[in-house]
Every structure is written in C-alpha cells, then in structure tokens.
Amino acid sequence: MNIRLALRLARVMVHLVAGLATCALVFPLASTGLKERLTRRWSRKLLAMCRVTVEQSPGAPVLEHALIVANHVSWLDIFVINALHPCRFVAKAEIRAWPVLGWLAASAGTVFIARGNRRELRHIFKGLVTVLQQGERVAFFPEGTTSRQGEVLPFHANLFEAAIDAKVPVQPYALSYVDAGGAYHPSIDYVEDTTFVDSMFAILEGPPVRARLEPLQPIDGAGAHRRELAEAAHDAVAGALRR
C-alpha cells in the first residue's frame, strides 16, 4: 500500500469513528432536522475523502414528502443521496454487515430486510406507511441488488404499495458515476464477486469520481397497482440513464 492511499484510508477511518460518536451521542437526542443536517454534512465529507464529487443533474423538483426509488450501483449510493436529500432508507440485510458503515446506516435509521422473509417484510411495510404518513421521505432500491452501470434490473413491486397506502407519490432518482471524460467510471461497479473492501480500495486508488443524481418526475400512486408503479419507475430511471 502506497503512502497516499494509506493516508486516504486513515482519513476515512477517522471520519467513520467521528460518525460513530455522533450516532451514539447526538442522534438519540437530536431533532429530525438536526439529524438531516448532520447526515448531509457527514455524507458529503465521506464522499470528498473518497474523491467523489456529487452533482444534481437538472430534473424535476425534489419532493420533501415521497417514496424515493433509485437504481442501485454501489455502496456509495446511500451517501450520494444523503449528501443532497437525506432519507430514511430501506436496504437489504447484507448492508448491515458492512464494516462500520453498516452500523452507521442502522444508526441513521436505515431499515434492513432479509431476503425471502415475508413476515419481516409485512412488519416493515407497516412501519414504512407510518413513517410516510408522518411526512418523512423514505428511499429504497427496488432492484434488490446492485447492477452494472447503465443497466437497470427489474424493480420488485412489494414496497411500492407503501406509497399507495400512505397516499404519497413515488419519485424516481437516476444514479450514475462518471470519470473526467463523462464515461461510466471503471472503479464503481460493485457486482459479482466484488467485496466491500475490494470496492473501497478500487475507489480510493482510482481516478476522481463524479456522482450524478437526477430527480425524475413524481408518479402519482392514487388508484394505481404496485406493479404499475414499479414498472413506471423502472422505465423512468432506465430512460434517464439512456439519455
């Protein structure tokens, strides 16, 4: 490991420890607004240390109260979204096992779902409806796993019903990561046998990254079926990435 990489990694580790302290000591007493400000600032610093610049592409206005869905590319996705528009996340249970970041995600209010656990899914669904009805913004990755850049896997429809029950719109986001020339960044794909540690080192060692988030037009769930919402959101994200 070269000295420059070691220094980058050390800075990230110190920042993670600071995040752990904030979650343990500040979050239990903080208001929702303060949590969002701290989450936004911490996420931006983490991305900056990884040499990831975040930009919001021109798109639809971001709703303060909606069910947010996005394509899933990397472990960076949660922090890119939180750097701009902090959300309560629903994520796959494997994320909970990420070193340090999994604990931080849980402390920030992320809800984890185990694959194939229908009883747990029903329980989480009820909680999502309640949170949405309270006026919070909730986000999840309906592909259920990461995909290669430029690809969008089919969206699982189950959790879209939370938007219908809570009577809130669905707002899709399109996520992409590019290099200085505007091409998909070679260090970002987090698929197949790539581990979290492999991905972390690839990003820290690779060239700088530009993360692009494009908010898309909200989809009204009133009177819709969850499968219709899932298909409409999928097509919107896939179309934005093709552009």
TrEMBL record:
Reactions mediated catalytically: a 1-acyl-sn-glycero-3-phosphate + an acyl-CoA = a 1,2-diacyl-sn-glycero-3-phosphate + CoA
Keyword Acyltransferase (UniProt): yes
One function term, GO molecular function aspect: acyltransferase activity
UniProt keywords, alphabetically: Acyltransferase, Lipid biosynthesis, Lipid metabolism, Phospholipid biosynthesis, Phospholipid metabolism, Transferase
Pathway(s) served: Phospholipid metabolism; CDP-diacylglycerol biosynthesis; CDP-diacylglycerol from sn-glycerol 3-phosphate: step 2/3; Lipid metabolism
SMART domains referenced in this protein's UniProt entry, alphabetically: PlsC
Transmembrane intervals: none
EC class (word): transferase
InterPro entries given in the database record: AGP_acyltrans, Plipid/glycerol_acylTrfase
Annotated ranges, domain Phospholipid/glycerol acyltransferase: 66-178
EC numbers for this chain: 2.3.1.51
Keyword hit for NAD: no
SUPFAM superfamilies recorded: Glycerol-3-phosphate (1)-acyltransferase
Entry text on domains: The HXXXXD motif is essential for acyltransferase activity and may constitute the binding site for the phosphate moiety of the glycerol-3-phosphate.
Family of this protein: Belongs to the 1-acyl-sn-glycerol-3-phosphate acyltransferase family.
Name of this protein: 1-acyl-sn-glycerol-3-phosphate acyltransferase
